[in-house]
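Q: Structure tokens for this one, please.
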Amino acid sequence: MKRLTPLQAIVIGGAIGGLGDIVFAIGMAIARGDTAVHLLQIVASGALGQAAFEGGMRTAALGLALHFLLSFGWAALFVLAARTLPALLRRPLVSAIGYGVLVLLAMRLVVLPLSAFPFPSGLTPSWPLLLDLLSHMFLFALPIVLAARRVRLR
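A: Here is the predicted structure, written as tokens:
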């Protein structure tokens, strides 16, 4: 198995995790009758507030860029944490479940409320919340954890 540098693990894990998460989110949006552009504008609204919905494809592109910026940030945080606490890498499924929960809670209870996001972002129990949680655990966090496992030791 080819070993990765920490930077490679961050880029690979963040890219695959971010892709899985955004494809899932767009699929959910389309299933409820929305569009991919509107979903990406919702992401951009964290930075732009309500103005994100008036920018067309430009704000959708910004939303996509911001999504991946956050994905790489979360991947970097996990890779750095795993270098300090190697136990995080022993059971990747357990770590992915825990990290997915942590990311979802942090995004909904800290990041979104502190941003310009114009919608409620709480944790009201619902099917969409459960699906979002599963997405964060298995489509987002698991690729990050698996990439971190391939980092060279020293």
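A few notes: The first helix runs from residue 6 to 31. The CA atoms of residues 13 and 143 lie 5 Å apart.
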